[in-house]
Sequence to fold (306 residues):
Amino acid sequence: MAQSVLDIDVPRWDQATFMGRLRHFFNITDCRTALLPDSRLDEAKALVEGCRAGSVPPGTTEEQLYYAKKLYDSAFHPDTGDRMNLIGRMSFQVPGGMAITGFMLQFYRTVPAVVFWQWVNQSFNALVNYTNRNAASPITLKQIGIAYATATSTALATAVGLNLYTKRAPPLVARWVPFVAVAAANCVNIPMMRQQEILNGIVVTDENGNKLGHSRKAAVTGITQVIISRITMAAPGMIILPIIMQRLERYRFMQVRLLVFMVPAACSLFPQQCSLATSKLEPELRESITSQYGDKVKYVYFNKGL
Fold:
């Protein structure tokens, strides 16, 4: 039987190792959770919050608690506790990303098709980036609009430009154009959508969760890691598959399996709760921490987002 002393927030798998993070993200990116109704997710949230308060319904097993935590982590934002929109959740990345990637790789020959599917992809990415941001740093509707427009323009300019440039290139080279456009857009979309974090910094804490201040360097570190993860997530399907697959039917078969693996694998490259040596922080923040805690705080911790 589950005990009220169970600390539901202690990771089930070691987050300091890649394999531990991989098991964690396989768990919370399970696309089956995207099919569950809001009422079931709210039940899971209530059970998790009850466990945190030391109150668990009689007869509840540890497996039931861990499943509730799985649903909570997949659907609720780690900073606010609010339920995230369905399309922006990482559990929706496999079906959503699979469909869009398939269309981009199939309809890459004409400019109208390139424009349309890159626009669809950047709209999808913008929503995912906004949903998985560090929510402690607010962003206005105007800033969201500018970020969306800038990233979409970058993707379109890259895709259309390369598409025209590779007209006489071998078909395989032309099939790689969508990936280059996606990579370029990620380098713009994510920092723009999370620009407030870069400008104002994100909350950093000590190992016990005590707030120490805001750090711009932590924000840049976290966002850089997210960009690398997103590009890695897209790479196998958009680079390798065009080399080995000639028929769309076979491509779709393989694409599902690649995305099922690559979404959690890419998310696992870096811990979601990142650490940064205090010595690498901005001088003013470092001095503030030192004045309060002396040399006790060697590292600070922060949520990098996904």
Summary: The radius of gyration is 21 Å.
